[in-house]
Amino acid sequence: xFSYAVFSGITLGGMYALVAMGLTLQYGVSRIMxxxxxxxxxxxxxxxxxxxxxxxxxPIVGLLIIIPASFALNWIIYRILLTPLVARAKNRGMLExxxxxxxxxxxxxxxxxxxxxxxxxxxxxxxxxxxxDVFGAxxxxxxxxxxxxxxxxxxxxxxxxxxxxxxxxxxxxxVDPTSARLVAIDVNFASxxxxxxxxxxxxxxxxxxxxxLTFSTSMGVxxxxxxxxxxxxxxxxxMLGALVAGLILGVAESLVATYVDPGLTIAITYVxxxxxxxxxxxxxxxxSSS
Length: 290
Prior knowledge:
The protein is mainly alpha-helical. The protein has helices at residues 2-30, 37-54, 59-88, 92-118, 141-163, 165-175, 177-182, 187-210, 220-234, 239-259, 265-279, and strands at residues 131-134, 137-140. A two-stranded antiparallel sheet has the order 1-2. 44% of the residues are buried. The model has no long low-confidence stretch (mean pLDDT 88).
């Protein structure tokens, strides 16, 4: 029972970390606080559901369709909705406020469309539900596959940011966009690319989560809040922090759901979050402003 709870928590935490990495990139580089982020996670879950139940395309293969489609969708959202806000913002603080208001409206648009198409019911599909023995615990194969893909994609994402020229450019824009322009970095393109890439990461998380959890049209706000908690708890802009924070929350939620009460999972999330902020306000791996 304990090993099952821990492994389930690691899988869930891996999903939290993967989703939070995308939000970290969007906010860190583009300076967009995307409150519609979780809705795009759920959109990907529903697309995976449609591909699986109507076309027979399993979610792993479906990633080859969903990732570029999500990248393109988020690119369009940035160009049409957010670029005018970037152009008129006098500073990053103003841009953050404007983006909160704009994406808050986008949240309700996306959620409304999903409600019209799918209603308020919970959805799931059958994919690799057979049990696999892992250290004496029977774990569903879909959780193992989801965790494996989360690790591979998360690692690849990290290597792109730290070992490539485009990754170096994105990190330079995140640190100081004015100085980045002085070394011929196209800040507008980098911001748009980062926003689209972050959206693609959200889609990956949505597809992987749909493999082993039920989901509904109203769950987007839950993923947005969890992603924000992971980002702040790990340290804003820190990928390693997002990974560690995601795993801590996932394991804690799984243990509480198994041994205490499933209704207290949200409570334990906020208890851990508040404790971290009280002890280290900048986050687990964040740099102190002092």
